[in-house]
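User: Here's a chain of 202 residues. Predict its fold as tokens.
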Amino acid sequence: MFPFCRQPRTLDSISKSYRWFIFLTGVFEVSLWSGTVFGWASVVHVLKTHGVYGHLCHNESVSVRINVTDREEDEAGPKTVQKIFKNCNEQDRQLALIGTVAMALYTFPGLAVGYALHYWGLAFTRLFASSVISGGFVLLSLTTKENPGFLWGASMMLSIGGNTLRVTCLEFANLFPDHRYTAMSVISGSYTVSAALFLIVQ
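Assistant: Prediction complete.
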């Protein structure tokens, strides 16, 4: 059905250097994109700063005073100032609900990914995963205080696309028949690194 997605007939037709290139590319992709949804706590901090779902906060919002050491110093040394952050239970519940749904959906596409790999091939499935992840980041960039609904689609697409990408990259372990399980372990363990992506960019 998709002739451009056909894989090489034999492993010997792929050079060893090219096999390493494919494998390391897969590890890089998994480390960067496949588990971003698990860094949800860092996203919540940024979303609350920008007032996403802030309209849910009414009179029940609570002001929290936090002592912060100012970087500017005078003759007496560093100054300690108080900064006020508003905490809203309804906003917290909404953001927590979105994060919970996204994480629950992470393993959801497993059966569908297996079907796609079997009938449509690795290349098509990887293109689908990349498209879903890209769409998720686009929706996340469009999420604002005025349009918070995009966050639902962004979180779900990042979750489904991330797991799909991780499963497809596990196929790269077949490039090294004698070390297949080691390669699978490296790829499986790499996705946890991507949880730090939002922490870095926040």
